[in-house]
């Protein structure tokens, strides 16, 4: 079946970086975008950025420009999200999600989600 | 960024009730509005896209309406499996934003 499976929980110190993986199966990886969305405890969902798994183009939320890097390995059908200069406010569950493109100039909905990866930033 | 505001934040209802959740955008998003259901410890599930289109496999008791800046999600007859948190998402541009969520509780 179509699914996204993420890597396990991480505990990091402030200032460190974290890299989370998202392995796709059950569909053609390069035919869809992969987005990253996080949810801090008790907070709303927050979109971070996305990658076109076909050509590798990326777009990031302005809030995370300079700290966020999204990559993919097409041979492994896996996308990666790396967030640097971590601070306590980055403590959250990070989800990857398959993006369904709506139209030119319009964004995406998310039809398949990974199970989430808890990232804890603590000294 | 476009701000999304949901009301109410919490809703208490009983099995069989008809419930409506509202989502307002700070500027027009046309019909580029989706609804998700999330249960504790789980990933969100897409219910509705383009304001009123039902995602495949979603029960027909869920419906969406609206355009521009005001949208609603209606559940026609609540089932036990429907008690969860619901989020709206605007995707009128590449910068997606979500509402703060509406927690649907059992009365």
Can you count the beta strands of chain B?
A: 11
Described by the principal axes of the CA atoms, the overall outline of chain B is globular
What structural class do the secondary elements of chain A suggest?
mainly beta
Beta-strand percentage of chain A?
over 45%
Question: What's the order of the H and E elements of chain A?
Answer: EEEEEEEEEEE
Relative helix content of chain A: under 10%
Unreliable segments of chain A (pLDDT under 50, ≥5 consecutive)?
none
Q: Largest interface, per-chain counts?
A: A-B, 23 and 23 residues
Share of helix of chain B, binned: under 10%
Q: How would you describe the overall organization of this protein?
A:
The complex is a heterodimer of chains A (123) and B (107). With 123 residues, chain A is mainly beta. Chain A is built from no helices and eleven strands. Chain A has strands at residues 3-6, 10-12, 18-25, 33-39, 45-52, 58-60, 68-73, 78-83, 92-101, 108-113, 117-121. In chain A, the strands form two sheets. In chain A, strands 2, 4, 5, 6, 9, 10 and 11 form a seven-stranded mixed beta sheet that branches. Chain A is globular and about 40 Å long. Chain B has 107 residues and is an all-beta fold. In chain B, strands 2, 4, 5, 6, 9, 10 and 11 form a seven-stranded mixed beta sheet that branches. In chain B, strands 1-3-8-7 form a four-stranded antiparallel beta sheet, with no helix packed on it. In chain B, strand 5 and strand 6 (53-54) form a beta hairpin. The relative contact order of chain B is 0.34. Chains A and B meet through strand 5, strand 9 and strand 10 of A and strand 5 and strand 10 of B.
